[in-house]
Task: inverse folding
């Protein structure tokens, strides 16, 4: 079965601390993975995708096929990073399968 | 340019009534997706359109749910005989040509069934 698991519902860190949001997936094919973010009162938006291998707002994510993971990392969290983060996997038909999301709270 | 828009932004209805939710994709986008965001369930896929046809309806939870798209643009999601468990935020997304392209999301319609 195709599945995306985000084990943490809530992650709370202090400003300046490193942050890692975990994502594991189950998919029989070649996965295409994404991180989406939803800031308070804003729409869901793409943060990054694994094929781009880019860093957005200081966040990076590496696809680890051996561990079937796509964890999102940032070395120094900022208060403006507080948001809901969703890991997603794209199926061959194009639609996305989302994890249940992790709420990141960055405290001052 | 304008992003994906959805209307209404909020809808309160009584159990058993029918509701229609509308999505206006980004102009020129041929692919359109509907998702549902429920408390405790996260985001779940409902249906996908490529142009006016829906090759994947696998996510529709019951036959009370239907969707159509006309003119390759606007889409309407209809829920008949609404139930309380239908209460959720319904999100629409569009992408320029389909599978490989980034999906851009609308602000959602918050549906509350009393």
Result:
């Amino acid at each position: 079965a195709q599945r995306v698991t985000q084990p943490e519902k809530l992650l709370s860190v202090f400003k300046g601390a490193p942050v890692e949001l975990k994502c594991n997936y189950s998919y029989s094919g070649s996965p295409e993975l994404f991180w989406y973010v939803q800031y308070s009162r804003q729409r869901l938006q793409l943060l990054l995708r694994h094929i781009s291998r880019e860093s957005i707002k200081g966040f990076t994510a590496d696809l680890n096929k051996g561990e079937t993971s796509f964890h999102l990392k940032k070395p120094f969290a900022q208060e403006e990073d507080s948001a809901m983060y969703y890991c997603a996997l794209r199926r061959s038909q194009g639609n996305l399968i989302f994890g249940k999301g992790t709420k990141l709270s960055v405290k001052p | 340019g304008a992003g994906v828009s959805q209307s209404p932004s909020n809808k309160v209805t009584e159990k058993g009534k029918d509701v229609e939710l509308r999505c206006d994709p980004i102009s020129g986008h041929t692919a359109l997706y509907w998702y549902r965001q429920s408390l405790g369930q996260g985001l779940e896929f409902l249906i996908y359109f490529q142009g006016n046809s829906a090759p994947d309806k696998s996510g529709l939870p019951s036959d009370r749910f239907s969707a159509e798209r006309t003119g390759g643009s606007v889409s309407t999601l209809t829920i008949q005989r609404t139930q309380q468990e239908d209460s959720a935020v319904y999100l629409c997304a569009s992408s320029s040509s389909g599978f490989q392209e980034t999906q851009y999301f609308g602000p959602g319609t918050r549906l509350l069934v009393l």
About this structure: The mean pLDDT of chain A is 92. The first strand of chain A starts at residue 3 and ends at 5. Residues 1 and 26 of chain A are 7 Å apart (CA to CA). The interface with chain B takes residues 43-46, 49, 86, 88, 90, 92-101 of chain A (CB under 8 Å).
